Amino acid sequence: MAKKTITPTDEFVKGLWRDNPVFVQVLGMCPALAVSNTALNALAMGLATTFVLLMSGLSVSLLRNFIPREARIVCYICIIATFVTSVDYLIMALSLELHRALGAFIALIVVNCLILGRAEAFASKNTPARSLLDGLGMGIGFTLALLFIGVVREILGSGSLFGYPVLPDTFQTWTVMVLPSGGFFAMALWLLIVNRIKKKAADAARKPAEVTA
Amino acid sequence: MNDASYWSIFLNAALVNNFVLAYFLGICPFFGVSSRLETALRMGAAVSFVMLVASVCAFLINLLLDAVGAPYLRIISYILVISSTVQLVEMLMKKFSPATFRAMGIYLPLITTNCAILGLALFQTNRSYGFTQAVVFSLGAGAGFVLALILMAGVREKLELNEVPDLVKGTVAALVVAGILSMGFMGFAGLGR
Q1: How confident is the model at residue B88, as a pLDDT?
Q2: Domain boundaries, chain A
């Protein structure tokens, strides 16, 4: 492989922060905003996506020498759709209530740009083991991002966390956070924080260089 | 069969439950191509066309799948139909309007992974719309998508001329604008029921 210098740990860790799918690459926004109105929905969606990421990454990577270049996107989509269908039926079997809360968004994992993006950019060029690590890292990064948005929206919007009340009764809940527009605002807030941290780190990295120059 | 009237299906899809601003479907092209009004309009037209074709195909496929008793093939067949339609639109556009084709760039093939289209196909199946209802639903969804895209592009063109702090520039500003637009669309709640 061309990337000999990158250790397996790096493949895993990069998805958590440096290349976080939601906050840095801004991929997979639709589910990130749509089902993050409560922390539980966000967690379930994140786990389902992680599963599909892992399995499709593994399959694409195993089949990478057999898939013709011209027809690769169609092949990837078929692989992804297969695993999404299994997740859809799995969630339906485990909890009908959750399946209803997530609605069509489980099926919509198929068109999550993150999964196709990883299949195309990573799994089609790397070994199965590395693809699994990459998928796991990206999946956990995605789940964490969803959870962050979900926690903010649930605490402010319904005054609870995972269904348990965490704020005193006197707190006037911000209904807007549960509504669709709350998703946009919560996401904007987190992006702002991430941008600020990154800018600070960049400034700190630049300063010593300027001194020596 | 769902007994909702055509008018209420159309209004619901276009305004009350706007695909972009209430269901968060098709967010990627929404932020990607909404910086200029003209590209936004063409993108909207392309997406609406794919929506219409996909809706008709999805209806027929669903009949077939129900007949052979294989509902688990639904997602995979829908997505294949959608990607073929997108390919068709791409070829047509390359032939008849190469300038538009270039302006849309990567976002044209990405219509395949536009959740709005697969979402439309899934919603019409879940709500068991009849054939005409499905067509009206897809027209409404397309109109809503174009409307949201145009509104967003208009605001963003104005925003370009103003001074915005570095940290907020780009996605953050776009998200806040989308949030406010979405709040505006909440005003339509209760309409067309």
Answers
A1: 83
A2: 10-212
Using the beta-carbon criterion (under 8 Å), do A180 and B27 form an inter-chain contact? Answer: no
Q: Is the pLDDT of residue A211 over 60?
A: no
Sign of the C-alpha dihedral computed for residues B41, B45, B51 and B52 taken in this order: positive
Contact status of B79 with chain A (Cβ, < 8 Å): yes
Q: Residue B187: how many CB atoms within 10 A of its CB?
A: 10
Q: Are B46 and B94 in contact (CB under 8 A)?
A: no
* Alpha-carbon span B155 to B174, nearest angstrom: 9
- In chain B, where are the structural domains located? 6-186
Question: In terms of C-beta density within 10 A (0-12 exposed, 13-18 middle, 19 or more buried), how is residue A153 classed?
Answer: buried
Are B114 and A185 within 8 A, CB to CB? no
**E strand spans, B24-165:** none
Q: What is the mean pLDDT of residues B160-185?
A: 85
The string of DSSP letters for A126-165 reads: S-HHHHHHHHHHHHHHHHHHHHHHHHHHHHHHHSEETTEE
H or E element, residue B157: helix B131-160
For B153, how many CA atoms within 13 A lie in the half-sphere containing its CB? Answer: 21
B residues 130-159 closer than 8 Å to A (CB): none
A67 φ, ψ (degrees, to nearest 5): -80, 120
Work out how many CB contacts closer than 8 A connect A with B.
112
